[in-house]
Design brief:
- It holds the Pfam family OsmC.
- This is OsmC family protein.
- InterPro entries: KH_dom-like_a/b, OsmC/Ohr_fam, OsmC/Ohrsf.
- It comes from Proteiniclasticum sediminis.
- It is a single chain.
- By secondary structure, the protein is an alpha+beta fold.
- The protein has two domains: about 30 residues; about 100 residues, GMP Synthetase, Chain A, domain 3, CATH 3.30.300.20.
- Helix content is about 30%, strand content about 35%.
- It contains three helices and six strands; from the N terminus they run βββαββααβ.
- The strands form two sheets. The chain has a three-stranded antiparallel β-sheet, with no helix packed on it. A three-stranded mixed β-sheet has the order 4-5-6, with helices on one face.
- A hairpin with a 7-residue loop joins strand 4 and strand 5.
């Protein structure tokens, strides 16, 4: 079973305790807001799934940069309206295989699929090389 414990002060400031670490929650500098955690959960789930697929396909790369952004609805409840995930893979060995891996990752990542129930989901995948070239 997965779990977190959260302790809040008498204001919007708290600490989330998970099995392997803590996160400070709030709206001040140095803290994480609720949608930061949602976007972080999406990015980390999507990357973990992508990595598993890339390993199975024996595709290597140096690193991945990811930006997750979104827009909330104005009507209550203010669920997400759109979510965009921008992924840059640095120094990949097989671009086509990573295209397929990202497509599969969006299908298998549980957080991506959960958010897709309320938001229009979109991702872009591009490649960067040591010489600075981006495709």
């Amino acid at each position: 079973m997965k779990w977190v414990n959260i302790d809040f002060e008498n204001e919007f400031r708290g600490v989330m305790h998970a099995k392997r670490g803590d996160v400070v929650i709030g709206v001040e500098e140095g803290t994480i807001e609720p949608y930061d955690m949602v976007f972080g959960a999406l990015g980390s789930c999507l990357y973990s799934t992508f990595l598993d697929i890339a390993v199975k396909k024996r595709i290597t790369y140096d690193k991945v940069r990811m930006k997750v952004s979104g827009e909330k609805r104005t009507e209550i409840p203010t669920t997400l309206k759109t979510v965009k995930v921008e992924v840059v893979v640095v120094n990949p060995t097989k671009e086509k295989g990573l295209d397929q891996a990202m497509q599969l990752a969006t299908e298998y990542c549980s957080v991506y699929q959960t958010l897709a129930k309320v938001a229009d989901m979109e991702y872009t995948l591009s490649f960067a090389y040591e010489n600075g070239e981006e495709k």
